[in-house]
Sequence to fold (364 residues):
Amino acid sequence: MNSVNRSAVDKSEVRLLQRARDGDRDARRELFEQHREIAYRVALRVTNRPEDALDVVQDAFIRAFDRLGTFNRESGFRTWFLRIVTNRALDLIRARKVRLAVPLDSSDDDPAPAVSSGPAPPDAGMQSSELGDRLRTAIDALPPAQRAVFSLYATGELTYAEIAEALDIPVGTVMSRLYHARRRLHELLPDLAPPDG
Amino acid sequence: MSKTSDDILAKFARDGLDGLTPDEVNLLEGLLNSRPDVAQELEPTVARPDERLAAALQADEQLPSDAAWQNVWDKVETGAAPVATPGSRTLRLWRVLAPVTAAAACLVMVLMWQFGGQDTGADEFWPLSPGGTFEIHEIETYGDATFLIAAGGEESVDVIWVLEQES
Fold:
């Protein structure tokens, strides 16, 4: 996107946010429709449960609309909003006290837990479902810090700067956590690892 | 930059994260976190999963239906703060000014109390001062506790606490 188009988008977003801050229902609905899917995808990867992901999205929008007055526009709304989404999702999994294969305070160097990966069944539909199960299990085994980075990365829509901003961590730390998250997933799911060479 | 930093960056640019060892990633993290100028070159890059992982993630995602989204929106609408109205701005302003006004009124009352009475050399930081000339209209006692004296003036009743002297 060139600078002229980006400037136009920014101004459009500023106007929309101003209307939403003033309580314009249509503006709020527009924000909801613009950002609900990416919010859901992030929340789903963090919580690993569709029903929890919807609750997180709902709660995040409520909080965001309540706090629009504090949004200082140093970052885009999407980044600011995804920070709320990620924090709420992490709060939820901590509150849920999910039994992870790896303890919550494990270090990045801990060996990855074993994930059942029997031979793939011949049926493509079953194969896809089984892979999805294994993928979810593997993501669920990530420590929260790595899972948060991976969830934002998995959207494929955010820059490293946006991921760093959403999580309030430096870019270098994003790279490090992402590296360890991917490495752990590749150990658990070798069929998803990039080919050697 | 040192040769090591150059090597790390070159290797990262060539092979991506997957091409680095854990030690090299640690060095990369330190380099990016300490060198904003270096980090700036990387920051605008969109972080995208490789094809296999992206395909697996996409296949696993089942987005909510329109009805489910409408349900979420309905809850957001009822859960969010009331829509702002022009009157509420005044209310919000009053919520800020009210405690400030109350504090200012208390300060004025204290100052009037202090400067309105005779100067008997009371501590300037303590707004209370020993009473001067006054007419006692009523005395109430509560056992050995503090005496309460109500001294009536022409237009108001002043309540004066007389504290027992400690022996």
Observations:
- Chain A has a mean pLDDT of 83.
